[in-house]
From TrEMBL:
Keywords associated with the record: GTP-binding, Nucleotide-binding
Protein name: ARF like GTPase 9
Keyword DNA-binding found: no
Classification via InterPro entries: Arf-like_GTPase, P-loop_NTPase, Small_GTPase_ARF/SAR
Species: Saimiri boliviensis boliviensis (Bolivian squirrel monkey)
Signal peptide stretch: none
Entry keyword annotation includes rRNA processing: no
PROSITE patterns: ARF
UniProt-annotated binding residues for GTP: 58-61
Lineage, opening ranks: Eukaryota, Metazoa, Chordata, Craniata, Vertebrata
MF terms (GO), sorted A to Z: GTP binding; GTPase activity
Pfam families: Arf (PF00025)
Length: 119
């Protein structure tokens, strides 16, 4: 049986070939699904060894969330290749959603710069 998110994955591979960078979001508190996230991430990046990679380790505000260094290890980010620009950000949504954390502003600026560098 196909998982609910499987149909969307086939689209991602189609669009990835024309992408300027890959943004990958992982739930830091969902320890059970990190091996699946690792497998999928490495499938995506294997097609293009120089595509810049930005990983958001979301839900860092939860007590059960893995720390960024644990996410780095769980996703085997040290294996993404020496020719690839890779960035890992810890993120979370603010309580009322109105405030943009400085990490997200930094990530936004980085993404804009990476996209401009590629074009």
């Amino acid at each position: 049986m196909e998982k609910p998110h499987e149909p969307f994955r086939s689209y991602s591979e189609t669009y990835l070939s024309n992408g300027l960078l890959l943004i990958f979001v992982v739930d830091s508190a969902d320890h059970r699904r990190l091996p699946e996230a690792k497998k999928y991430l490495h499938q995506l990046i294997s097609a293009n060894p120089v595509l810049p990679l930005v990983v958001f380790a979301n839900k860092q505000d939860l007590e059960t969330a893995y720390h960024i260094t644990d996410i780095h290890e769980a996703l085997a980010l040290s294996e993404v290749g020496n020719d690839r620009k890779m960035f890992l950000f810890g993120t979370h949504v603010t309580k009322n959603g109105s405030e943009i954390p400085s990490t997200m502003q930094d990530a936004k600026d980085l993404i804009a710069q990476l996209a401009a560098d590629v074009q």
